[in-house]
């Protein structure tokens, strides 16, 4: 079971079976989880001797409605999200300073259903400082290894390596993380959140919409008759918006066309679908 699947199991324990009612048309925690994982991937820094440093502080900004909707579980959710990011970083063999923190913040300028994620490296030896803020005290001399710079402050040296050596080269391909490729025995599935209905994708076009001509029909007034097409080509799934009225979001970002990775969350209208690769 992958990191995101474990997170979703814990989430079910927190909110029970009220997913469809609680998150209808609002930010879904699975979207936040996937965005945090992507943030760690994109903001990691490759140091010397095969070391990779990931941010340890993640800020999630939510609009008023989404923030209030999650308020009942905000502390638990932040802790579970931090555990999920820590597991992802550990699985990749990367390093962080101290414990991973996830902070949920309200931003009244953000509309419902939209959120933003940012991150930085914070040194636990200097509480209250950010990785991109100058320190009041002089930093210890840097080691001969190259250290990443964020803004005007240098990140202090990493502790000695423990455990396995990461094999990451720092070459980032976020669009292909978790891609099944042409491996045999892999089934590509869309799971509709709430009822849990599973739709197995076929090679070629898989049109999702409200109309009778859609391959996957959703009884959602916020969904266009032909809203989004999930094209399965040579073992890779691509989500392509079909000029819908309300747009298509993947992991909280509006897209025109995007390759999908296992666990990606697609939101159209008031409906949430999770893309899965079974058999990976």
UniProtKB/TrEMBL annotation:
Keywords: Phosphoprotein. It comes from the Bacteria. InterPro entries: Cell_Proc_Reg/RNA_Proc, FHA_dom, FhaA_N, FhaA_N_sf, SMAD_FHA_dom_sf. Residues 137-147 have a biased composition (Pro residues). Residues 115-182 are annotated as: Disordered. SMART domains: FHA (SM00240). Residues 206-255 form the FHA domain. Transmembrane segments: none annotated. PANTHER family: NUCLEAR INHIBITOR OF PROTEIN PHOSPHATASE-1. This is FHA domain-containing protein. It comes from Geodermatophilus tzadiensis.
């Amino acid at each position: 079971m992958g990191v995101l699947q474990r997170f979703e199991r814990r989430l079910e324990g927190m909110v029970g079976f009220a997913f469809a009612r609680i998150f209808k048309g609002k930010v879904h925690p699975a979207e936040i989880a996937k965005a945090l994982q992507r943030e760690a991937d994109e903001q990691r820094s490759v140091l010397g001797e095969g070391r990779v440093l990931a941010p340890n502080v993640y800020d999630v900004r939510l609009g008023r409605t989404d923030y209030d909707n999650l308020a009942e579980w905000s502390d638990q959710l932040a802790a579970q999200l931090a555990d999920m990011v820590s597991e992802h970083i550990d699985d990749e063999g990367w390093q962080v300073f101290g414990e991973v923190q996830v902070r949920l913040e309200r931003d009244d300028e953000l509309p419902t259903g939209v959120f933003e994620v940012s991150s930085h490296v914070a040194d636990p030896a200097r509480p209250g400082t950010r990785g991109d803020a100058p320190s009041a005290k002089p930093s210890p001399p840097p080691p001969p290894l190259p250290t990443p710079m964020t803004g005007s402050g240098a990140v202090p040296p990493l502790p000695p390596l423990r455990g396995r050596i990461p094999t990451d080269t720092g070459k980032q391909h976020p669009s292909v993380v978790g891609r099944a490729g042409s491996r045999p025995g892999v089934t590509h599935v869309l799971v509709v959140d709430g009822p849990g209905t599973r739709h197995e994708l076929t090679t070629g076009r898989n049109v999702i919409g409200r109309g009778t001509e859609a391959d996957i029909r959703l009884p959602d007034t916020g969904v266009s008759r032909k809203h989004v097409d999930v094209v399965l080509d040579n073992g890779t799934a691509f989500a392509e918006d079909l000029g819908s009225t309300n747009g298509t979001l993947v992991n909280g970002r509006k897209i025109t066309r995007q390759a999908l990775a296992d666990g990606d969350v697609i939101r159209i209208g008031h409906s949430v679908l999770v893309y899965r690769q079974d058999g990976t």
